[in-house]
């Protein structure tokens, strides 16, 4: 039995329940009141079982979501590993091709040095040949100049000789023609004298005939003389013209030779400059020919390697597209899982808030009821003590009934206190489990938006720390 309060019989006031004072309640009313408390206790137990089932459902949902999340993470890790393997494979192939390119560059450098050496040798030989040709051309030029000088001297000597011969011929021809003219003049003088003698003899008879014949003969002589003079004049004119033509032809030949010499000098200079200009194009053309030959030799190999590289590139591109597609699908699924996780988190927080609010209200109501019941029991203990003092005539029966009533009430009170302690402990264990899960997923408590309350009933701190029978170990 609980201890009795001192002075309870004098100053204690009765508690009114359902409009009836407990001090004036009969046994039947107390039994009805106890039955109602038991019904409320059963209802609280059913609600506790309902919350336990909801808690188990949330736990199963959370386990399923965690397993799905782990599977998604495992698949994502596998895909990441595949992507890393493909990237490593691509890096190895890239290193292989880089090494191959380095070997090709080394071979190209060797070929280029060989081509440069050959080009230098050929250029040196060509330069030597060109220098020899230039020396020969200079010698030929000097010889041509000497020949031209000798020819000019010889032509001048020939012209002088021809002039002298022409003058001699002219002088001889002049002397001959003068002698012939003198002879003709003498001849004609003699003829004229003879004719004059004859005419003088025939002067009288044939004066008219002679004069006529003389006139005819004079005219004929004049014509013949004019003809001879014209022939002689034409002859000398022809000789003069021939000499002038010969002189002009010789001058033309000298001019032609001079122009030919200038043209040959110009051709030599042009050939020299053209030779110098053609050295670099010749070198470049030889380099291009060697490069084209080398490219023609390596074309088939490069073509095969290019086809293989294109095939590998297509395969790698397809694999990359597949990996991107799977990565996008996994990203969408991961986003969906995150949304579902956030939704479950929100629902879980809401459920915890609702449970906390309901349990808080119920705990407050239960605490008030327990306080009222404790006050009622204390008051009844006082009343029973007074009744026992009054009813001493039949103490055995009265004490037995009172003890039964008090035992039932104490059992009901202890049951209610025990249920309250279990509900508070379940609430605290649920909060502890939720905090552990938040730590496991790295979610700080500040993101919840509220501060969880620890439910410790007033005056029952020892019971709140006891086992509640509702918490399972998190494996």
From TrEMBL:
<keyword id="KW-0206">Cytoskeleton</keyword>
<feature type="coiled-coil region">
    <location>
        <begin position="116"/>
        <end position="165"/>
    </location>
</feature>
<protein>
    <recommendedName>
        <fullName>Dynein regulatory complex subunit 4</fullName>
    </recommendedName>
</protein>
<feature type="coiled-coil region">
    <location>
        <begin position="207"/>
        <end position="347"/>
    </location>
</feature>
<dbReference type="GO" id="GO:0048870">
    <property type="term" value="P:cell motility"/>
</dbReference>
<keyword id="KW-0969">Cilium</keyword>
<feature type="coiled-coil region">
    <location>
        <begin position="36"/>
        <end position="89"/>
    </location>
</feature>
<keyword id="KW-0966">Cell projection</keyword>
<comment type="similarity">
    <text>Belongs to the DRC4 family.</text>
</comment>
<keyword id="KW-0175">Coiled coil</keyword>
<keyword id="KW-0282">Flagellum</keyword>
<dbReference type="GO" id="GO:0031267">
    <property type="term" value="F:small GTPase binding"/>
</dbReference>
<dbReference type="InterPro" id="IPR025593">
    <property type="entry name" value="GAS8_dom"/>
</dbReference>
<dbReference type="Pfam" id="PF13851">
    <property type="entry name" value="GAS"/>
</dbReference>
<keyword id="KW-0493">Microtubule</keyword>
<dbReference type="GO" id="GO:0031514">
    <property type="term" value="C:motile cilium"/>
</dbReference>
<keyword id="KW-0963">Cytoplasm</keyword>
<dbReference type="GO" id="GO:0008017">
    <property type="term" value="F:microtubule binding"/>
</dbReference>
<dbReference type="InterPro" id="IPR039308">
    <property type="entry name" value="GAS8"/>
</dbReference>
<feature type="domain" description="Growth arrest-specific protein 8">
    <location>
        <begin position="220"/>
        <end position="416"/>
    </location>
</feature>
<dbReference type="GO" id="GO:0005794">
    <property type="term" value="C:Golgi apparatus"/>
</dbReference>
<dbReference type="GO" id="GO:0005874">
    <property type="term" value="C:microtubule"/>
</dbReference>
């Amino acid at each position: 039995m609980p201890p009795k309060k001192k002075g309870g019989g004098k100053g204690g006031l009765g508690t009114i329940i359902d409009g009836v004072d407990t001090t004036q309640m009969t046994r039947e009313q107390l039994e009805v009141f106890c039955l109602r408390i038991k019904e409320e206790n059963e209802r609280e137990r059913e609600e506790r079982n309902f919350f336990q089932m909801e808690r188990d459902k949330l736990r199963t949902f959370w386990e399923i979501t965690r397993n799905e999340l782990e599977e998604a993470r495992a698949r994502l890790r596998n895909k990441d590993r595949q992507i890393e393997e493909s990237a490593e494979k691509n890096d190895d192939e890239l290193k292989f091709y880089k090494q191959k390119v380095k070997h090709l560059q080394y071979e190209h450098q060797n070929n280029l040095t060989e081509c440069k050496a050959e080009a230098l040798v050929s250029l040196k030989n060509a330069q030597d040949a060109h220098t020899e040709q230039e020396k020969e051309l200079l010698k030929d030029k000097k010889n041509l100049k000497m020949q031209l000088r000798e020819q000019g001297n010889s032509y001048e000597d020939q012209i002088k000789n021809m002039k002298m011969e022409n003058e001699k011929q002219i002088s001889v021809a002049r002397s001959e023609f003068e002698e012939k003219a003198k002879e003709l003049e003498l001849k004609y003088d003699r003829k004229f004298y003879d004719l004059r003698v004859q005419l003088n003899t025939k002067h009288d008879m044939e004066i008219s005939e002679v004069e006529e014949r003389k006139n005819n003969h004079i005219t004929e002589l004049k014509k013949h003389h004019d003809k001879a003079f014209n022939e002689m004049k034409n002859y000398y004119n022809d000789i003069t013209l021939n000499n002038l033509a010969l002189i002009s032809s010789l001058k033309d030949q000298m001019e032609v030779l001079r122009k030919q010499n200038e043209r040959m000098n110009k051709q030599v200079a042009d050939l020299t400059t053209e030779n110098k200009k053609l050295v670099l194009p010749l070198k470049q053309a030889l380099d291009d020919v060697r490069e084209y030959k080398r490219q023609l030799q390596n074309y088939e190999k490069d073509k095969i390697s290019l086809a293989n590289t294109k095939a590998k590139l297509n395969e790698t591109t397809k694999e990359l597209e597949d990996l991107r597609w799977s990565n996008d699908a996994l990203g969408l699924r991961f986003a969906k899982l995150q949304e579902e996780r956030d939704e479950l988190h929100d629902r879980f927080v809401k459920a915890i808030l609702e449970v906390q609010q309901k349990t808080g209200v119920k705990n407050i109501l239960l605490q008030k009821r327990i306080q009222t019941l404790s006050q009622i029991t204390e008051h009844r203990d006082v009343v029973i003590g007074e009744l026992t003092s009054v009813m001493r005539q039949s103490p055995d029966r009265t004490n037995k009934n009172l003890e039964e009533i008090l035992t039932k009430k104490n059992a009901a009170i202890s049951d209610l206190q025990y249920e309250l302690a279990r509900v508070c402990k379940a609430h605290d264990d649920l909060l502890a489990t939720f905090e552990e899960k938040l730590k496991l997923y790295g979610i700080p408590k500040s993101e919840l938006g509220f501060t969880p309350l620890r439910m410790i009933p007033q005056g029952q701190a020892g019971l709140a720390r006891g086992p509640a029978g509702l918490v399972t170990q998190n494996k």
